[in-house]
Amino acid sequence: MDQKDTEMNVKGVSSSTSGVVVQVREKKGPLRAAIPYMPFPVAVICLFLNTFVPGLGTFISAFTVLCGARTDLPDRHMCCVFWLNIAAAFIQILTAIVMVGWIMSIFWGMDMVILASYKDQGVPQQL
Question: Facing residues of 70 across strands?
Answer without folding.
Answer: 37
